[in-house]
Write a structure and sequence with these properties.
Carbamate kinase; nine-stranded mixed sheet; 9 strands
Length: about 240
């Protein structure tokens, strides 16, 4: 039985690359869709915020002398491409999906409208939120915290390459151990980089828990949704 009725899944653009250097790896895309289908089949309502780092990362653009706002808008457009690819793959897997964009591109995808997004979720459709918050200088982590709060999600699930939050970098320190649960205050005190500061503060203020888990572990998303010991739960 699912522990959560409505979730907000945060996917990085890099997750779509798989083992590729850039772009969208079709096999990885299908793996993610399979994970999402496993929880929608349980009746869980799913919203998704997706990044664009596999195509273009705004911060990297500024290192080449590009204006930060311009680079961030380009990054937002990259998230629209990823959202369209994800929604298309979900439809092929018989999952009803809709893309809503914080940037107005009505010829391509719907604009973000909170009430319509909630109605889609109630109808059992997966809503993929594209273009971040629609504003430069904000990350897709912040978009996840914002959309999760707006749609009444019960938890933000941050899908990463590692299976939770550790006491140290497990690649550098073999003695590092995974936290099963940790409070927002303790995560701040230990200076653990769970999400960017704005996103983390918003989740804490809204009492919106975060679970950090690996999207690369088969069945990981379903185990998180069922409330099992998967990843790290950040709670109030």
């Amino acid at each position: 039985m699912a522990a959560y009725r409505r979730i907000l899944l945060k996917l990085s653009g890099e997750a779509l690359m798989g083992d590729d250097a850039y772009g969208i790896n079709r096999d990885m895309l299908w793996r993610i869709v399979t994970e999402i289908k496993a929880v929608t089949d349980m009746g869980v309502e799913v919203g998704v915020v997706i990044g664009g780092g596999n195509i273009f990362r705004g911060v990297a653009g500024t290192s080449t002398g590009m204006d930060r706002a311009t680079a961030d808008y380009m990054g937002m457009l990259a998230t629209v491409m990823n959202a369209m690819a994800l929604a298309d793959a979900m439809r092929q897997a018989n999952i009803a999906a809709r893309v809503q964009s914080a940037l107005n591109i009505e010829q391509v995808v719907e604009p973000y409208i909170r009430g319509k997004a909630i109605r889609y979720l109630e109808e059992g459709k997966v809503v993929v939120f594209a273009a971040g918050t629609g504003n430069p200088f904000f990350t897709t982590d912040t978009a996840a915290a914002l959309r999760g709060s707006e749609i009444g999600a019960e938890i933000v699930l941050k899908a990463t390459k590692v299976d939770g939050i550790y006491t140290a970098d497990p690649k550098k320190d073999p003695a590092a151990t995974r936290f099963a649960r940790i409070s927002f205050d303790e995560a701040i005190g230990r200076d653990l980089k769970v999400m960017d500061a704005t996103a983390f503060a918003l989740c804490r203020d809204q009492k919106l828990p975060i679970n950090v888990f690996s999207i690369f572990k088969a069945g990981g998303l379903k185990r998180v949704v069922m409330g099992e010991d998967e990843g790290t739960l950040v709670h109030c």
